[in-house]
Amino acid sequence: MINGSDQFLLYLLLHLLGVFAFVNGTSSEDDLMKKTMESFSGYPNEPSTPSFLSVDVETLQVQIDELSSFSDTPAPSVTRILYTDKDVLARNYVKQIMTNSGLSVREDAVGNIFGRWQGYEAGLAPVSTGSHIDAIPYSGKYDGVVGVLGALEAINILKRSGFEPNRSIEVILFTSEEPTRFGIGCLGSRLLSGSEKLASTLMNTVDAHNISFLDAAKSAGYDMDSKQDISSVFLKKGTYSAFLELHIEQGPLLESEGVSIGIVTAIAAPASINVGFEGNGGHAGAVLMPNRNDAGLAAAELALEFEKHVLQSGSIDTVGTVGIMELHPGAINSIPSKSHLEIDTRDIDEERRNKVIEKLHESAIKIAQRRQVKLSEFKIVNQDPPALSEVSIISAMENAAMVSNLSYKFMISRAYHDSLFMSRVCPMAMIFIPCYKGYSHKPEEYASRDDMANGVKVLAITLAKLSRE
Ligand SMILES: *[C@@H]1O[C@H](CO)[C@@H](O)[C@H](O)[C@H]1NC(C)=O
Ligand SMILES: *[C@@H]1O[C@H](CO)[C@@H](O)[C@H](O)[C@H]1NC(C)=O
Ligand SMILES: *[C@@H]1O[C@H](CO)[C@@H](O)[C@H](O)[C@H]1NC(C)=O
């Protein structure tokens, strides 16, 4: 909690930054400033008076807890998969909060949800912020959710403080950030960014139960018949002046260093590659070593070669993971005749990451030759470019952290987010807050009220600033 005189100081600072030049046609700015300051001067002696930029973190926590009850697995875990009944209930819950905050709510064809606080200059491109609420099986309740419900609280703070935006401010709930159901991550934001490829793919995409994307969407109330219906989601360039996302770090750095705010300067982007080898197989006893062409050992060798390429990239920011390695037929007494690998590599430097993929390909060819196996598959499944945050938004966030007296550091997001795709249609930056031990995607995921309040405050001040530019 900050005390009354600090609130006053903060208010003055914001005025100096030009954040709180109120839009009002009738009263002069001076009058408004005086009136607003008077109404804040009682704080904290009149706790019932909504105070200037004070985050109602109790309500935020209640909402996070309530939202987590829309889950297909028991608490404390959360499982909320795209277009399931629980997903629909959770969406309705968020739409209700948007309506209660006085936002006008709209949904696009795939169920991206937009809540708009109309600004003074309706013709200007709005400032946008948001995240997702879908949750992978047995995960936690803060991933994504803090960036949606926290954004709505940021708007409530600004409303309570008497701020009026010049540009409109829009909160976006993105459809399916997690790839759980259809194997496609950031489905909603990827479409918003104008992915023709995804619009085509979705016409024939099915889930593990052979339910089509189109049928699943229909069951959730989103009717699409054609590729045109899906592409209606695409945003035109210039739709938004900026996009910001508040998110838990999902890593341990902020907590272990005792820093309150992470300002994300770049988002690393993943590439995924599927590799297959095929050999002759055979009996584990009968075939002598010189006569073997073991698809399993080819896979093992490639995995280690891949690690070498990643380590030799010259940067700590290059990472690589062989997350899947399957052998066929998978019996102890049978030489593997087929192997299948799924490989993920990420970096903030696209060229460096792609170099690793090239070297991986060369190694796969060489290993196949040496071991007399066939390289049956080498498929780059996706290769998204990384994104850099916008300098002017970074400095607005930095100012917001400073006037709030919060420690902050610049950092890289090694997980990807909807922001990665929004960066293709407008300038972008992200705010991270600490989370317990860096845990995410499991029930132990946790962010403290203080940390959430700090993040919401920095988001609110930054939104206010950008809505005036
Ligand atoms: C999946 O559904 C389609 C259309 O209903 C059907 O033609 C196809 O045979 C099904 N595939 C499987 C593997 O069940
Ligand atoms: C700012 O934070 C520091 C360290 O947490 C604290 O010592 C100082 O009193 C704070 N200043 C204000 C104005 O809140
Ligand atoms: C709103 O923003 C526009 C464009 O930046 C600017 O020209 C105008 O003066 C602003 N209006 C107010 C009341 O600040």
From TrEMBL:
Entry-linked Gene3D superfamilies: 3.30.70.360, Zn peptidases
Keyword Amino-acid biosynthesis appears in the UniProt entry: no
Keywords noted in UniProt: Hydrolase, Manganese, Metal-binding, Purine metabolism, Signal
Cofactor(s) this protein cannot do without: Mn(2+)
InterPro entries given in the database record: Amidase_Cbmase, Bact_exopeptidase_dim_dom, Peptidase_M20
A matching Pfam family: Peptidase_M20
Stretches that traverse the bilayer: none
Keyword Plastid attached: no
Coiled-coil residue windows: none
Gene Ontology CC entries for this record: endoplasmic reticulum
Signal peptide extent: 1-28
Protein origin, superkingdom: Eukaryota
GO biological process terms on file: purine nucleobase metabolic process; ureide catabolic process
Entry's Gene Ontology molecular function annotations: hydrolase activity, acting on carbon-nitrogen (but not peptide) bonds, in linear amidines; metal ion binding; ureidoglycolate hydrolase activity
UniProt subunit comment: Homodimer.
Protein name per the record: N-carbamoyl-L-amino acid hydrolase (L-carbamoylase)
Organism this protein belongs to: Zostera marina
Lineage start: Eukaryota, Viridiplantae, Streptophyta, Embryophyta, Tracheophyta
